[in-house]
Write a structure and sequence with these properties.
alpha+beta, Cytochrome Bc1 Complex, Chain A, domain 1, five-stranded mixed β-sheet, 2 domains
Length: 405
Amino acid sequence: MKIDSFKLKNDLEVIYLNKDTNSVSIVATVHAGTKNEDETNNGVAHFLEHMLFEGTKKRINGSIIAEDVASIGGIMNAQTSSILTQYFVIVPKEKFLEGLEILSDMIQNPIFDDDAILKEKKVVLNEIDLCDNDVTNEIEEKFLTTCFSSSPEHKKILGTKESLTNLTKEQIINFYKKFYVPNNMSLAIVGNIDNICKNVENYFTFTKQSLENENFNYVPNTTENNFVEFKSDKTTCAKVILGYPTVSRTNSDFYALSLIESIFDKGVGGKLINEVRIKKGLSYDVGVDNKTNQFGGHFTVEFSSDKENVSIVLEIIQKCINELNEITEIDLEKARNYIKGYFCITSDNPIKLGLLLGEYNYSTGSVAEFNNILKEYDKITINDIIRVKEKYFNNATKIVCLPKD
């Protein structure tokens, strides 16, 4: 894949991946999420994402934006995380300029209508209610606050009912003005398009602003109290998460950790999934996640089971970790092939590829090595797997939620 990256005069970074498709995806990645909030405006990054769909100076309400996207055969959406916010549109290739104009208008010219703010507060408050009734969110939050004394993921992406209710229009606009600037964003375009630089420069005309240096670290808790058990009436089975602090996306150990994730959980073929779900039927809902960004990361295993089986599943997880000392070249090659296959499938999806390019660029500081990602996995040896296992998989943080009697 040929990837070009360049900066406009206003410091907006443009990433162009030339791909022979009938459609083109455009992904704007804003380097702001809940990590950039405080207790008084928690939830503003996600709420701002909603507001950009609610009208611009040219398109005065959300219905007009939606109609304009649909009229060119496009699909548009967005997502907010603790680290960044991404807006994307995919359109037929011949409608590239129209899609680019709509996205640029939304990002540069939101109007923050008072009635729309009230309406979207009701929408997000309903989202918060749904999340508050999902015990999975609760155990993941408890894991983060137990495993780390501070991290970019500590605050709730949706905010709390109190913070959202008290969120003011001034706070929303201030967050927008501070972070929605060209030198705090990238624009990834996937497709076969001419004159990329000129076209983007014609539409994204906003000016750069001064930015503060980011310093958001994952600080592991040093206390020995790394086990939390609680009961909830939101579940009829036990839900468990256990995990370990790891490394940032730019650390070379990321690749060995990703291979361990693949060894444990490559679909139903993973060793851990096979032991827990296929062979013993102890849990259907079990997953492994090596989650990292440029600030740090954590490796987790999460599962649901009957409460009588929790200790059995935990023993199996530890057994699988111990057996990493005995993996073979065949095991390692299967794990590499799974990752390469997943990457290949993702690369065939223009939206997913655009999102990945924006995230990779922010996490690593450049897309220069994007095409070499898979080569890094080929460098990992069995000794690397064992070394990383010994280095990180110690003193697990465990969060156990049991159903109320």
